[in-house]
Amino acid sequence: MPFAGFNPSIHRVGHIDAMARIVSELRNGIPMSIGELSQKLDIDRRTVGRVIDVLLDIQETFNSQSITTEKRGRRFLVAFKERGAAVRESLKLATQVVRRNSQFGLWSFLKRKE
User: Fold this and answer.
1) CB neighbours of 7 closer than 8 A, spacing ≥ 6?
2) Cα–Cα distance measured from residue 103 to residue 108, given in angstroms and rounded to the nearest whole number
3) Domain limits at 24?
4) Could you tell me if 22 and 37 are in contact, meaning their C-beta atoms sit under 8 angstroms apart?
5) Which residues, 6+ apart, have CB-to-CB distance to 35 below 8 Å?
């Protein structure tokens, strides 16, 4: 007997595929709930929620840091670089978001591992 909340009609989708589909749908500019995204994209609601948490964590990271790349010989180096205070403040003001109350955010996951 399947556990409560299990919907066998929804196929398993990897997080990378789910993220691509969710971002593509959100680019349309129509606000949707997690449940609506789940139904429209045929992705489990928990997966949609976790992907949204990761996207919010990524957005938060890029408000204060940027990725730099450098080629040294045969190596390709990738690093985070702190943004200046003025840039951080303007990006923070432009992207005020309300976070879901979730234990599955990327940073909360990383903090639990420490």
Assistant:
1) 44
2) 7
3) 15-108
4) yes
5) 45
Q: What's the token pair of residue 97?
A: 């978001």
* pLDDT tens figures, 25-73: 999 999 999 999 999 999 999 999 999 999 988 888 887 788 889 999 9
Does any domain span residue 113?
Answer: no
Residue 40 belongs to a domain:
yes
Any domain includes 114: no
Tell if the pTM clears 0.70, that is, is over it.
no
Taking the C-alpha atoms of residue 3 and residue 35, their distance in angstroms, rounded to an integer, is: 19
Give how many domains the chain has, as a whole number.
Answer: 1
Q: What is the DSSP letter of 44?
A: -
Two structure tokens written together for 110: 């990383």
At 107, give phi and psi (nearest 5°). -70, -35
Domain harbouring 68, CATH code: 1.10.10
